[in-house]
Amino acid sequence: MKRTQVSVAALLLASQLVGGCATTASTTTTPTTAVGNATTEAVSQLGAAAAVVQEAPVAPASAAVPAAPPFQVVAEQFADLRVLRYQVPGFETLEPQQKELLYYLYEAALSGREIIYDQNYRHNLRVLRTIQAVWTANEQRRTASTNPRELDQATKFATYAKRVWFSNGIHHHYSTRKMLPECTPAYFRELIFAVDAKQLPLEPSESVTKFLGAMTTILFDPAVAPKRVNQEAGKDLVKTSAMNFYQGVSQTEVEAYYKRKINTQDPQPISYGLNSRLVKDKQGQLQERKWMTDGLYDKALSQVVFWLNKAVEVAENPEQKLALQKLVKFYQTGDLKVWDEYNIAWVHDTKSRTDVVNGFIEVYGDPLGYRASYESVVSFKDLEATKRIQAIGDEAQWFEDNSPIKPEHKKQNVVGITAKVITAVVEAGDAAPATPIGINLPNATWIRKEHGSKSVNLGNIVDAYGAADAGGMLDEFAYDEAEMQRARQFAGMAGKLHTDMHEVIGHASGQINKGVGTPKETLKSYASALEEARADLVALYYLPDAKLVQLGVVPAGGELAKAEYDNYIRNGLMTQLVRLQPGETVEEAHMRNRQMVAKWAFEKGQKDKVVEKVTRDGKTYFRVNDYEKLRGLFGQLLRELQRITSEGDYAAGKALIETYGVKVDPVLHKEVLARYAKLNIAPYAGFIQPKLVPVLTNGRITDVKVEYPTDFAQQMLEYGRKYRLLPNYN
């Protein structure tokens, strides 16, 4: 997929971004459409804040106005997670119509949030509602009990509940391994019987005792649904994965089904399977149950459509209006050709200040790469910050022409690449609480080739990560003072540029040979890791290039590129291992990508000691000795990865990932974990979302205010009440 994910460990390592994945900056069109007549009924639907917000009285000129306290980015830390907060700078300067539009898109985003829980695991919604039902009883014990045992158990259950909220289900959001409660089944039983049975998500005619038995097995048995997404070679990836995209089918059956359906000669193929669950009907025939209004997830998607239709009424311009109308039609019909029409319209909407990603977007949650998870990112353009990323996007053809890939794999006419830095307003579904830092869409290769793509850097999210920097990683894992100083001076900007180029010229580069299927068909379960590696390598190859100095986006001297090379090697070979438990292999696509690239370069440059493994005082370090040769190695691997992608060479792609991207040195892993543990830094982070509150005058929205909640659990409970739209089982 085309998304940049961020490793908090790597961020803290050098206060920078790692990984990678999302218009030409246009003059913002002054809205001319009249503000929509949003009725009180519409605004208050589902409990939306419909009360008029009263403005605070203005203090007399002579009165001393106390300075506002600094914004607290870090909210809390538990397990391996930190919960942060981000601001929405510039929102108050938007036109009233733009604010109203963003409010409707905000409601649409959150109306679909329950879908990701059900997609991740078929029992997740019952788990979610069970947590909500017993939360108050558990909090009373956690805050008021004087019994040490009860206090300990209550604290452990609260931590587990927050982990489930953070991961949108009972499987870890990154490793996808099942998270087990640290409280005992006996304590869980006490909580269940401490609440009114009417509050529990019981099925028809189900007793509390039967419900408890089922939930205890789901939560506490490590053998039940141990992995949400299994990528272990040689296994049936469908049957051994707990995700809820398939029911009663095997990997072989799925692959055969799509082999019959897909025409590899079609120059404009739809994204087969993107918006459906594949099941067997009563006759044993395979059937796709589409996610659409009047279909699977009807009630949630109907509410998404309700708010999208309100957004259509106040769209900034005809292009944005058309895109939103196409999105509504897609949800209503489930037609993947309409999905393509929407994506084309969305790509061509380059003048709007406001924007939204909403839909079934990324396929990381499907081990076979067909089905996509629900997500939404609502945003508006940061006009000043966009200048940097725009400079790169404007030269996309130059970067393509000068790439080290084979001439026949280059695009002769790079079209429609638009790039911008955005200010996120709210994120939902698969994009929250853990968030991407960059996005490049659409994912359909033919649309990107014929119509272009949008690349975005989530500027305020990146800033929040930087403000939350806890330090310590550089001191522990960087080889020497020179490396640390270089990182402190240049790594922040290097990371941003890496993300920009990964999205803007990385994912948009190269082309697939005529008659070769899409990567998910040819490269199968390795497609995502290979694609992320390809985009990373484009960025790595060009970071030292004089072209970037010429464009004015990097200073001369090459130190910025060196800082990113240091970090990439250090992270890929060593520090990202803090995300794994002892004995685990690498399965997540971005981690496989980074380890594969770093290990391959380390091995191929070993003779010349391009990258050297050094042991000092019992600690392991990786030192880059020759940055120019390392760039050459990155270029060689980029050339090969593009060949693999263009030709659909499954065997070669598999060999690269399995040889370099999967296996972990257990001795080095143990050392890294021990060194990291001393720093007391959580390796993952996500966000409490801002809250939009409409200001109403005579039933119409005249303004929208931004509030910044501080309590993660309370936000999750509020969402659970307000956006409870799906049955326990779908």
UniProtKB/TrEMBL annotation:
Q: Which UniProt keywords apply?
A: Hydrolase, Metal-binding, Signal
Query: Is Cell division among the key words of this record?
Result: no
**Signal sequence interval, chain numbering:** 1-24
Q: Name one Pfam family in it.
A: Peptidase_M49
Cited Gene3D superfamilies: 3.30.540.30
Q: What is this protein called?
A: Dihydrofolate reductase
